[in-house]
Amino acid sequence: MAGVQFKQWALEYVLSDEETAQLELARKAAREIESSHANSTVVGNWAASIQQWMSPAHDDDQLDDIQASGGGNIITRAKGAYSMMLNRQPEYDFSSDSLGTIFTALSFLSSTLEALDKGTLKSDQGIPVSPVQSSCVIPYADLLSVQRLIGFFGSMFSYDHKAGITAASKALRQLSAMKGFKPPMGVKILEDVCKIKEDFRLQTALTRLEVYELFLRLLQDSAVASELQHKYGSSAGFILDLLELCANERDPRNLMTWFKTITVLLKDYDLSPEVAEEIFKTFSAYFPISLRNTTTQIAITADDLKEAIRSCFAAHHCISSFVFPFLLQKLDQGDAVTVAVKLDILKTMRACVESYGNPQISLAPYVEKLWNSLKYEVRNGDVKETIDATLDVLRAIAKRLDGTSGQKLNVSLLTDYVDLVIRDCRDDLSKPSYTKQAGLLLITVICATVRGYLLYNASFIDFLRQNIRQPKSPSHTDDLLLLLNSFLKSRMELVVQRGEKYREDQESLNCEAHTHLKSLFHDIYLPIWSKRAAEPTSEEGDVLKKVAEGLARLATQQVVQPTGDIVLLNSPPVCSEICSLLTEELIKGLDMNPDDSKSDDHTLEDQVVLALRTIVMVYRDGYAELVARAVAEIRKRDWANPSHHSLNSLRDLLSRLSFIGCSKIPAHIAMTTPSKKPYSPLQHFVTFVASLLDLFPLTRQAHEECLANAHIVSSLHAGLLWFRDACDEKYGNAVFTWGSTNQINLKEIPDDFFTAVHRGDVTLVSLSESSPSVYHEFVKLGLFLVVHLYRSATLGPRELWSERALVQVSQMAALITRMLSIDEQVSLNLAHEAFNFFRRPNDEAVEKNLSYVSSGLLTLGILQGLRPEAMTELVSLLSVYQSQLNKANSSQYALGGVAEQFMCDACDLMQHQQKASDIRGAICTVLANKFKPGPSFSNSESLTLNQTFDFWAEWIKNATSLEKGISSESFEVILPIALGVITGSIARQDKHVLDLVPILHQAISNKHANGEILAKSMGILFKPNNLLSPEYHAILKRFYRQWAYFSITKPLFALAQPAAADGHSASRYRIAIIFMVANCPFTIYQDDLDSLIPLLITSLTGGSNSNSFTGKDVVFTQAFAALQILTEILGNGPDALKSHLREIINGAKMIYSKCCGNVGDENLAATRTRCRKLALHVLGMIPLKFEERHIIAYAPPTQRMLAVACGDAVRKVREVARQARASWAKVA
Q1: What percent of the chain has pLDDT over 90?
Q2: Above 90 in pLDDT, residue 871?
Q3: Residue 71 has pLDDT above 80, yes or no
Q4: Does residue 106 lie within any of the structural domains?
Q5: Do 257 and 343 share a domain, yes or no?
Q6: Any idea which of 178-187, 382-391, 1184-1193 has the lowest mean pLDDT?
Q7: What torsion do the CA atoms of 606, 610, 611, 612 make, to the nearest 10 degrees?
């Protein structure tokens, strides 16, 4: 039965075209063999299952004779059929169909072997001889062991070059992984496969790939390698056969495997020089390798091939005598070598230098030749990539000559190399044309190793000092300083990486001489700065930038003490002098008049800022000195009536101070003498905050903007942002692991807290710079700063605080509040403080010192950062501020909490400006979005915020009705509050919003003027809102904007069409739709373009129902919104506009014409300018999105119109007009 099964499975395998079905059949055969424990009969039947495809038709009779005469001897019958197949004569040709069938049949055997458990077949098991029925003929009964299967499949390479090679290779690879596989079998496989000889190149690429993978599998086997080495010795005859067989391979995938195989041969086999040379000749013939573009997609790239062949070059030092001359010969071909090829050569050379063992033999003999070739790549090179790659090779040579894998080499190898470089480059330092190149070569070689640095650094600095004292030009000085700075940078890298490879390096650095380094400031940097800093020219400015960079490098140099500790190289007085020198440049702007600044180039100031930041991160006392100096200079000025230039200088100075001290966390590095203050990662932040709070206010005179004071507050905000980013960069996700600060009592924070910390009266928590707790302590200090500013703004003189300053305080509060956890926000009672402003029991009432706008901004700042769970008390509990809210509204709707009452209280806004209403609307957006009743609230949620909706629904009804309508001025003031409540609720998809939709639609269509105001304000519901963002813990449901669009906007399309019966209502609905859609992403409304486009055209062209019911201000803002939508459609789905091009082009031209001319209203004039610009932009996009045949009829009049528009009065409009004209000029 097993024999019949195997034959059936083999037949199904041959007939099947699906790979999955074939694999399943192979698995069935494998399971059958495994279940029989590799019974000889079962294995024989499996092997015999393909005999019908392996013999020509006229051999069947011969096979029958064998079967008939063999009696019960299964071995006799098997050997007869087997030898018949092996001795098949070449004249027995097969058709292509027969070859394909034979290939598939053999694949059945190889796939079975792949699925078979590797321990099933024995190495060489005996074959039982037993009488069997004549019907149970098993002609392949010899194939019952790994050895005999190897013999069978190996014979394919001698007799079946057309059909069986792929399957045989695959089968042999699987057999080599069997437990019964023995090393001599691997030798036999290699010998059998090599018998294919010249027929190998005639095989398909996939077939050859199978053979390459077989070679790689066998040669990587250590046991097979040992057997091959034992049999062939270093002459390695089998390798020569492989090289001959695989010559001239061109397929990229095959080359990848072949190069891996070559790498294995070089690394793992003991080769004679002659064989190594033959291998080198084989793979070097491909270098430099490239990949032709073909239509066939392969996963191999040119870089993959380059890396593969590079691994061959770098495999073993036994081929070094061939490699380096070969690569140098390729490199020295001059202009014939492209940049890409040169980079490939240099990368390969570096890989060889770094990989070869025994550098005394493999590298040292070629150092001089390498140097004599490579130096010109740097000296005369002009391509940065090749210069860098060359320097990498030179650096690798120095490191390799220094030692290998933890063992130092004789120092003479390294010194001979460095002396060679110095001899060729020293004189070039005095030649401006070659200074930079020579210096780079010297620095690369000297600073490649600690030993080289210690031996030659003093002489190199002496070379630079001599040339800096006698420069040929400012640019020469600039290059020399660049080299000195690079040298200091390289030195620090050596100090930081000390001991990584050799322990001796760290011990050597302990004894380093420092005198020549310490003298650099007074000998080089200070004289150059003092000579040029007064009135630098452009070239001298470049020199000063290099000096500033160098001072930072010098001040941060560290040395290793004999104890192994790290300290700063320079003494505190020298570091202080460096900081003072750079601070002079930093505060220079305060003394300058506007006319003194002859250039807008601030790169020197920027470099000074970067230098100071670098310095104060290690010389920590420097920041306190810097800030004290800057504050003293600021106090000297009169800020009562400052000029615009003075205010800008103050702003720049303060912002630079915040960046210098707060954008990085200072390092804990000791000095030769103790620092003035104990180390704290937050000390610069505290110094900055304390100094600016002490500086505030700069002026006590009332100004409309009070910019000097506002700049101080803005800089405090910048300091918070910089330090937060510094914590995120250093600690990453670890900052979200919160500690507890529940013991904080905000009421007990003294007003002079930061000053006391700065003086040292209060000590901060001791922390290391690597501890994420630094972030938590920063948030706590940030909260203290917010508390201080809130108290100052609410209790101090009102004239000190402009609206601009309060906006910054509000944003600071939002920033710090959102960083707190839920427990922190609740324990600190921040929801209550949003209305109390951190007042203490004895503080005076807020109303005496704050305007409505000011109090609103401060409330918004805290609420914006709160989490919904921390705001429950605003919903569920009555507040002490309930008496300040509108009694009529609260009693009518029985509102229970501060949030509901606040959202419904609008009567006190009637007398205030629009800005106050917008702020109240923003607060209501936050309250409505984070609405979450607490557990103590007695009613369900549907009876709380739903009552707020009821209030505003009633108000909107009355305010837009002709009978009860209020004035448009009052409506515009209060409407943002109602829309704020709805906007916040939409984001969390509050189902009660749906009850408001019919009321909104009806109010829009009412004939009262307020209906038009509501229509154009509907876009607020969809406008992106920073208050509703995840970082501020807003409740955002997925697809909430789609939900709102489907519920509010889409029902209006049918009612807004130009042909609608009620022209007034259609016009209002059209306004609402356009303003809502203009604030939506294209993906939301893309399915409604057929209904939307007619509305856009009507808005542009002024159809019968378009503008007759609309005010002029709405006409232009509506047109602008329509043009915005058209821009989105042109960018994302222009095909929808193809049938409307004439109307769109005419409409855009019409809008441009209507918006020309002067108007008295500045706001309306600005809207018209934006409309003209956007109309021209739409016209310019059309030729880019449509074929010429669709728009050629409109080209002449449009081109004439654009020619006129190029003379528009506004420059930015003219620019867009010229771009549009250029687009249309391409239309014939």
Answers
A1: 52
A2: no
A3: no
A4: no
A5: no
A6: 178-187
A7: 100
> Hey, what amino acid is at 988?
R
Instruction: State which of 808, 841, 866 marks the end of a domain.
Output: 866
Asked if residue 1214 lies in contact with residue 1195, where contact means CB atoms within 8 angstroms, the answer is no
Quick one: 509 and 529 in the same domain?
A: no
Query: How far is it, in rounded angstroms, from Cα 1129 to Cα 1116?
Result: 20
* Pair (809, 916) in one structural domain: no
- Count of C-beta atoms within a 10 Å radius of residue 145: 21
Instruction: Give the CA angle between residues 363, 365, 369 to the nearest 5°.
Output: 95
pTM of the entire structure? 0.82
Of 463, 493, 513, which residue sits at a domain end?
513
Bridge partners, residue 530, by sequence: none
As a whole number of Å, the end-to-end CA separation of the chain is 81
Written as one letter, the residue type at 936 is S
Shared domain for 418 and 523, answered yes or no, is no
Amino acid in the structure at residue 131: P
Q: How confident is the model at residue 589 (pLDDT cuts 50, 70, 90)?
A: confident
Q: Which residue has the tokens 């018949």?
A: 84
Indicate if 544 and 641 belong to the same structural domain.
yes
Look up residue 895 and give its two tokens. 């509102």
Residue whose pair of structure tokens reads 């009804």 in the numeric block = 957
pLDDT the model gives residue 860: 94
Q: How many CB atoms lie within 10 A of CB 968?
A: 15
Residue in 908, 844, 843, 905 with CA at minimum distance from that of residue 879? 905
**Does a structural domain hold residue 17?**
no
Residue 580 lies in a domain: yes
CB contact at 8 A, 628 and 587: no
Span 418-435, pLDDT tens digits: 999 999 999 999 999 999
Alpha helices in 565-706 (DSSP H): 572-586, 588-591, 603-616, 621-636, 644-662, 683-695
In CATH, what number is assigned to the domain containing residue 452? 1.25.10
Strands 558-560 and 403-404: unpaired
Q: Which domain holds residue 1045?
A: 871-1080
Query: Residue 1: its pLDDT value, please?
Result: 53
C-alpha angle 547/552/554, rounded to 5°? 90
Shared-domain flag, residues 659 and 730: no
Closest by alpha carbon to 655, among 601, 586, 600, 593?
586
Residues 762 and 818 in one domain: yes
Taking the C-alpha atoms of residue 258 and residue 283, their distance in angstroms, rounded to an integer, is 9
Paired tokens of 173: 């690879």
Structure tokens at 1050: 């889409």
Residues 6+ apart with CB under 8 A from 971: 959, 960, 965, 1010, 1013
- The Cα–Cα gap between 853 and 793 comes to 12
Domain count, the chain: 5
Cα–Cα distance, 253 to 305 (Å, whole number): 9
* Within-domain flag for 1127: no
Comparing 102-106, 245-249, 930-934, the range with the smallest average pLDDT is 102-106
Same domain, 859 and 883: no
Q: Which is more confidently placed, 973 or 370?
A: 370
CA distance 618 to 624: 13
Nearest to 834 by CA among 799, 858, 868: 858
Distance of alpha carbon 203 from alpha carbon 974, whole angstroms: 84
Residue burial 975-998, b: 16+ Cβ < 10 Å; e: rest: bbbbbbbbbbbbbbbbebbeebbe
